[in-house]
Structure formats: structure tokens, C-alpha cells
Amino acid sequence: MSVQNDQTKAGAGSTVISVDAMGGDRGPAAVVAGISLSAKKNPDIGFILHGPKDELEKLVAKRKPLLGRVQIRDAQDVVLMTDKPSNVMRHGKATSMWSAVDSVRAGDADVCVSCGNTGALMALSMIRLRKLPGVNRPAIAILWPSRNPQGFNVMLDVGADIRADEQDLLQYAMMGASYARNGLALARPRIGLLNVGTEENKGRAELKAAHDLIAAAAPNGNFDFVGFVEGGDIPGRKCDVIVTDGFTGNIALKTGEGTASLIGDLMKEAFKYSPLSRLAAVLAYTSLQRLKKRIDPRRVNGGVFLGLNGTVVKSHGSADATGVAAAVKLAFQLSQTGFSQKLAARVASATAQAKNAGTDQAESSD
Amino acid sequence: MSVQNDQTKAGAGSTVISVDAMGGDRGPAAVVAGISLSAKKNPDIGFILHGPKDELEKLVAKRKPLLGRVQIRDAQDVVLMTDKPSNVMRHGKATSMWSAVDSVRAGDADVCVSCGNTGALMALSMIRLRKLPGVNRPAIAILWPSRNPQGFNVMLDVGADIRADEQDLLQYAMMGASYARNGLALARPRIGLLNVGTEENKGRAELKAAHDLIAAAAPNGNFDFVGFVEGGDIPGRKCDVIVTDGFTGNIALKTGEGTASLIGDLMKEAFKYSPLSRLAAVLAYTSLQRLKKRIDPRRVNGGVFLGLNGTVVKSHGSADATGVAAAVKLAFQLSQTGFSQKLAARVASATAQAKNAGTDQAESSD
Fold first, then answer.
1. From CA B324, how far away is CA B302, in angstroms rounded?
2. Which of B158, B85, B168 is nearest to B314 (CA)?
């Protein structure tokens, strides 16, 4: 195993983020450029960086903001996007991803960030960090641009698991509420359960059962339950957290991304159409940049694995420096609020209550 | 029952469309304005219009293009958006929707158009038109703006049924291929099966089984099978027809619509931000109108019910005149190509072959 059991915190920062430098589509240079951006903006972050030592030392040395703030842990192997999760679990001890997750396991960092293979990262996170007591299926939560004042909604699960029964959906609701409180600073998040209609008699059997479980848990759970919501509510203002199974959530996420990308490309075409429209494009430049920034997926880059002993942020595989910096920012926020500990306490108390009191599932801690 | 068993074709048009004037959010005035637009553009359409005779006669009399081209069938009751499908099936004989569907049943029109309650329209279509022999679950197919040369992809099912097993998904593939040949004039449509990844080992058990069934049916089925596709491929160029169950398809459709609507609103805000951006908006007006037209959901208005003895086009409940005209245009196209008959022949032949030859499911008729 390539992880050094070095407990010293990295660099000057008071909050340490463990970062997998390898496995993203753009290689370690983009990751180092990203953490350099973060370091420049935020003096309170330090990094443990995982990957081939020689290569990383050279990349880090070029970035002034990283001076004295990065501890490198040598890991010579890389998890490829094509690697099977089961293979990585058996033979991946020397990989940078394994090493990055193990820094959270060892308590050297609260949160780990990786741009690598999602399936492998989830598998490694499950075996190295283990599920929180009482959690059946961990989930991946993402932020989605929305009409709400906070600018984003939370959706989970977007692909940790293709199945979810009513108990899983209840846990997603509680974990999503906790994430919205800590990641979006919402005191009392509004939870919606994704379905094909808002009437209570609609949808699959597990959705009707989950509807009742989540409604029963809401009064003591520090969240409001708005009932069933539809696909159009994911970017809407009806709720802050959208709960669904990982199959449906993954399809919705990728459909939304694909639609936004198509519209962006068609808009570019429209502005190239005539000399007048090209002039308009010049004048509209700052307006369009503002719009782009508002819906730029790189700026809300980071699926968060919930339900484990420690938090893992999965950055987009194609993330550039801006994308990596966004994922690090999210990781920092979650470290700051003590999110991992709060979520663990909440799930533990809900599980204990459920054992004692049937459907009375949560208490009003954070 | 309010339907007159009048076999005369309506008006001068050679192709007759049965139109439910009631049940849309904007009332019969919008529907009559819509069919008037269609009549003006296309001299070959005639209409059978269903609803309260007195009211409709007044509305039709105001529209010159409709002179002599509309036959009104009196139906005093209206299916409301809040009506339960089961109730409409039992007590809906006097409604305009029932009457509109029955014109197809009687052979007076090939295709019916309604802006009303989707669930009730599907339920009525099922009991009045009945499923094609060999079809287990009918499906609703929609057109989705895409990067393909034809400008749109087909997706089905988007909500006829929340369940679909591998045999249903195979039938959706064949029906979708038939729709793409007749509605989009694609000689050999490319079919994709929606999943959370493109690897063959991904997804639910029924998806893996459907993958093999559709692949086996493709060589004789006049379509190509590209395998699993992801949410991002729905507006993409990888395939022309996206096959999925009605739960997932409905969520994807509404997520895409919601995302497009959010981007549209944010774009408007961006252009109101400063005097310079307002000037840019004026100059960009025609470019933005062109973009709007390209992705305007009203212009691809119409979910098509497939798998019944006759074709039903479900227009958006909130459709205005432009939306209704788009639905009528689609209905006209499908009437012209003899789509209902071709689809029936194809399903019948595939069913016969399946009985004889196991997985060898389709032949090369249209």
C-alpha cells in the first residue's frame, strides 16, 4: 500500500482536502492548476495530493500559490475510466484514488476529491470508509441550477445505485436535507419526491410507501415535505431537494446537461447567422457570460457521496482547472461545517428512533 | 352517446382529422384558432370538431379559412384535467373527447387530436380503439429537438404506462422505428435503449434482456440498433429513436422542458441587465427568434399514442393556436403516410414471426 501513515496536516491551511491528482480526462496538470486556483482564493485550505511523486512535485513547484501548502503522497498506479470497479477493489491498493480515500479513512482529511472513474470511486469509498451505521445504500447528490433564491437545488441519488426501496428513499431525504443545510445554508430545506405526477395515487408502489415514510419523518426531521414533484420541478422553486432512485436521477441529470448543451450550441449558431447578429453577440457578450456563469456545470462541479464515514466529492471526469477548483470549494465548505459528523449523528439518531418508534424517524439536530 | 354515425367526410379536404375542441387549458377558442391556421396553410385538410354545437358554430363562423371545411359533432360534456380516467371511462360517453376518439373508431377520420387530460385520453383510446393484436402496452411517443439532421429525435414511452418489461421495450423499438420512418421520413432509423451507461453489463435486468431482443430484431426490422444510450443522447446525434419505460421517459421529458424553460428565462434576465445588454437584445432579436423557433415546444407539439387501432395525437394542455396547428400538422402527416395501417401490419407480422421463430421478431415491410 502506497499510503504513508503520516498524520501531519498539509501545509499552512487549517482545513485539509485530500485530492486524487490522477484519473481525470485532462490529467494531473488540470488538477494541480485547479487546486492552485483554490489556494489563491482561500488561504485556509491545505492539500494532500495523491499520485506519482516526481510528476506531481514538478507540477506543484510551478504554482506559487501552492508553496508550502501541499503534501504529496506517492501513488504510482492510476485508476482508468475503463477499469471495472471490482478489479480496482481487488488490485487497486497502489492507485492514487485508493490513497486519496485512505487519507479520509485515516483522519488526515475530512473530505476527498477525485475526477476519476465514478464506479471505482464509489466502490473504494464503500470498502475503505464503510457505510454509516443504519445506511443501506449510499447516494450521490449533485447541485442543479434552479429558480430558488439559493440558485441551486440538490438532487439525489444520481447514480450510486440503480435501485432504491422506500427505506432507501427515506434515508436519501434525510441525507439530502442535511446536505442542503450544510452545503446551501438552508435552515429548513423543502424535500420533494420525484414522480410522474403530483397526485398521491400516482407512480410505483415504493414511491407511495416512501411518500408516507418521508411525510411522517418531516415534523421531527428539520425539513418540510412538499410531496411528489415532477421533472420540471428539478430546476424549479417548489422544493430545494429532489429525492429519487439512482437510475432515474442519472437519466434526469444527463438529460438536463444534454439539453443545456444543445441550447448553448444553438445559441452560438444563432449569433453567427448574419453580420447584425454577430454585432449583437459582441454587445451581448457580458450578458451572455453572466448567463453562462449562472448555468455553467463546471461551477457546480461535484457530486457528493453521502452515507459513508467521511465525505467524497466526485468531480466531473472532464473537469478543467475551474471545475476542479469548484469541487475543492464544495469540499472545503462541507469540511468547515463539520458535515460528515453531523450527517453521521443524524442518521444514527434516526436509526435509533426508528428502532424504538416505528415511523418516527428523525430528531431536530443538524 | 353523442356521436352521430355520419360517415360523410368533413368539408372539402381529402384528409379528415378528428379534433376534440374542449378540455385544453385555453378552451375551444384556442383550438378553433389553431385549426383555422392549419386550414389556411393546407388546403387538403378537413375537420370533424367535437364539443357543444352552439358554442363551436359561433367560433367557427368567425374564421374564414374554416368555411365549408368543418363538420361539428355535438358533445355537451367536457373531460376536466382533474377527472379520473376510470370515471371518464364509465361516465364519459357524452364528452367531446369520447366523441373525438369514436370518429377514428368509426373510420370517419384516421387520426384524432386532443389537448385534454392525458390519462383520460389514453384510457378512452384503449377501450374505444383497442390495442393492436400483439401489443401489450401502448406507448406515447414525442419529438425532441436534437442535433440530428432531421432536427428531432423520437422518444417513447413518455408516460402511457409506468412499467415496461423487455417484450414491451422491444415493441416500443419497433413502433418507434415505424413512427420515425413515417413522421420523420427516415428510411432506416437508429434505435437506442436508454440506460445509465453504455456498457452492456449496466442497468436493470429487463434492460439487458431488452438489449438482446432488440439487437436480434434489428436486421429484419428495417432499423439499426446502437445499443444503450444515456440521457445526454436524447437531444444528441447518436440515435434517432430513444426507447425507455414510461416512468423514466416522463421524468426525462419534463426535466428537459424545465431546463430549457429555466435557460430561456435566465437569458431574458441577462438581456435586461444593462442599457448595453438591452441594445444587444434588440439587435439579436431575429437571431433569438430563430433559436426560439428551433426549440419552441409548441412547434413539436404532440405526443402520439402508438399501439392502438388508430392514431391519437395528444397536444399539450396549454397549447395555443400555434401549438394546436402543430399537432394538426403532425396528425395530417401521419394520415398521409397511412401510418396507422403500416404500424398495424408491422406489429402483426412481427407477432406472427415471433410465434414461429422465437426471437426473430420483424420483417422488412414499413
1. 9
2. B158
Neighbours of A187 (CB within 10 A): 9
Task: Record the cell numbers describing residue B231, joined without a space.
Answer: 440521457
Do B75 and B2 meet the contact criterion of CB atoms below 8 Å apart?
A: yes
- CA distance, residue B190 to nearest chain A CA (Å): 19
Q: Which of B83, B84, B193, B259 to mutate to test the interface with A (most CBs of A within 10 A)?
A: B259
Cell numbers that stand for B27 in this block: 378552451
What's the pTM?
A: 0.86
Strand partners, A153: A144
Q: How far is B313 from chain A (nearest CA, A)?
A: 20
For residues A183 and A173, what is the distance between their CA atoms, to the nearest angstrom? 15
CA distance A21 to A66: 14
> From A232, which residue of chain B is nearest by alpha-carbon distance?
B258
ipTM of the complex: 0.84
Q: Which residue in the block uniquely carries the three cell numbers 456563469? A: A293
Instruction: Burial-class residue B133 by CB neighbours within 10 Å (0-12, 13-18, 19+).
Output: exposed
Residue, of A134 and A240, whose pLDDT is higher? A240
CB contact (8 A) between residue A255 and residue B234: yes
The pLDDT assigned to B356 comes to 62
Map grid coordinates 434505435 to a residue.
B191
What secondary structure does DSSP assign to A145-185, as a single string? E-SSTTSEEEEE-SSS-S---HHHHHHHHHHHHHHHHHHS-
Q: For A71, phi and psi rounded to 5 degrees?
A: -105, 125
Distance CA A191, CA A174 (A): 9
pLDDT recorded at residue A83: 92
Search chain B and give the residue with CA nearest A195: B251
Give the separation between CA B337 and CA B330, rounded to whole angstroms: 11
Facing residue for A295 by CB, picked from B254, B266, B290: B266
Average pLDDT over residues A294-314: 81
CB-based contact A194:A214 (threshold 8 Å): no
Determine the distance in angstroms separating the CA of A89 from the nearest CA of chain B, rounded to an integer: 18
* Ramachandran angles phi, psi of A70, nearest 5°: -125, 130
Do the beta carbons of residue B76 and residue B301 sit within 8 Å? no
Is the peptide bond between A157 and the residue preceding it cis, with omega within 30 degrees of 0? yes
Confidence category of residue B139, pLDDT binned at 50, 70, 90: very high
3-state secondary structure (DSSP) of residue A77 = strand
Predicted confidence (pLDDT) per residue in B223-274, tens digit: 999 999 999 999 999 999 999 999 999 999 999 988 888 888 887 777 777 7
Q: Classify residue B180 as exposed, middle or buried by CB count within 10 Å of its CB (0-12, 13-18, 19+).
A: buried
Mean pLDDT of A229-250: 96
Contact residues, chain B, for A231 at CB < 8 Å: 250-258
pLDDT at A308: 93
Can you tell me the distance from the alpha carbon of A163 to that of A267, in angstroms, rounded to the nearest whole number?
Answer: 37
Contact call for B248 and A250, based on CB within 8 A: no
Residues A25, A317: contact at Cβ < 8 Å?
yes
